[in-house]
Amino acid sequence: MRSGGLNRVLLALAGLILLALGGAVLAVGLGVRPPSWWIHGGPHDVLLSHAERTRYRGAGWWWPALMAALALLVLGALWWLTAILRRHRLAGLRVDTGDGGAADLRAGALESALAEEAARGTGVADARVRLRGRRKKPRAGALLRLEPEVDPSTALADFTTGPLARARESAGLSSLPAEVRLGAVKHRAERVT
Questions:
Q1: pLDDT digits (tens, 9 = 90+) for 121-176
Q2: Model-level pTM?
């Protein structure tokens, strides 16, 4: 599962748990009779009694352990937030127009043009391209699905000297490093008679 999907699943799970707990506390507060196993006995009950709140206060390990656990929780939440907010895909490129100005090129437009041109190559059944990195130093990630009879080294050479080189030149980049993954299209075995 990709990290974006994992983030959505974890956020949805945390949201459902918090919604269920909050809804249950609200329902008990509004007078709904809770089941016998529920932590609340009624609308005037407290979550933690005075004895439960002060049970470990005198122990020497309690406060350092509590602070360490809270610090780990905060650091984990901050790490997760920065991982979510960090852009993994490139939004756009700045292209020199030749007259001293610059134009913004959407990365999605360059990705689709590069993928379409790569898919028209000999023996390439399907192509997908994603741009990552920074505006001044983009990197391309490509997935080429090849027909069964195609030589992978030929398809790779055709891609790097053809569509990838033209994309680099048209965007005015000095270099466009790429990671190309090659895969085969699934096909049925041919019957020999």
A1: 888 999 999 998 888 789 999 999 999 888 999 999 999 999 999 999 988 888 89
A2: 0.55
CA 97 to chain CA centroid, Å, is 33
What's the alpha-carbon Rg for the chain, to the nearest Å? 29
- The C-alpha angle 78, 84, 90, rounded to 5 degrees, equals 135
* Domains in the chain: ranges and CATH: 1-47 (no CATH), 92-184 (3.30.70.1350)
Q: Are 163 and 125 in contact (CB under 8 A)?
A: no
φ, ψ for residue 64 (rounded to 5)?
A: -65, -40
Q: How many residues does the chain have?
A: 193
- Pairing relation of β-strands 138-146 and 178-184? parallel
